[in-house]
């Protein structure tokens, strides 16, 4: 476990009640306070933030999880080819169950730190004080954000799922996802907020990190990767 007495100080912004109002600039070396300050900052920015308890997250295996901090990289994911815009809380519950109940190398909690739905709402995933489980061999110092949508083109992946999706698209039963502008705007604002708290210098789509496996070679899809590249360019961040 980390030594909280020797951690780096972080500049954060908060208000007493977390609502819009005069912003108080504080310096804290308390990670719990920083987590709350991030939540407050999102709400002050006019976005809706949904904490774990409000989407009925399952209990994690905290005794097996590892502390992490001093984040320098952000990894962007999509929810996968079986997902589409829908009830975000139910999707997060499904993702958490799927990741924690895997027969091989089950996760100790949902792997992503945050999720954004198609309406731009920000959801808390894994507590930011714990190392994520979302990028193979690259989890230390990486904040994982998942966009709750399938952001692949039909046929992307060159496997059975891709062939089925391509066929359904050809006969008019499936269409390429239309990325909601509210989701993009929220992601842009949220990445900016995270940069107020951490010295982030790298932004990448999941598959841009070297050596990814399985669905990681597709994630966040061609549409998702286009969003990542535009955001990276506008913020002057580096690629993995």
Automatic annotation (TrEMBL):
Pfam families: Amidase_2 (PF01510). Residues 47-195 form the Peptidoglycan recognition protein family domain. CDD domains: PGRP. InterPro entries: Amidase/PGRP_sf, Amidase_domain, PGRP, PGRP_domain_met/bac. Belongs to the N-acetylmuramoyl-L-alanine amidase 2 family. This is N-acetylmuramoyl-L-alanine amidase. It comes from Paraburkholderia podalyriae. The lineage of its organism: Bacteria, Pseudomonadati, Pseudomonadota, Betaproteobacteria, Burkholderiales.
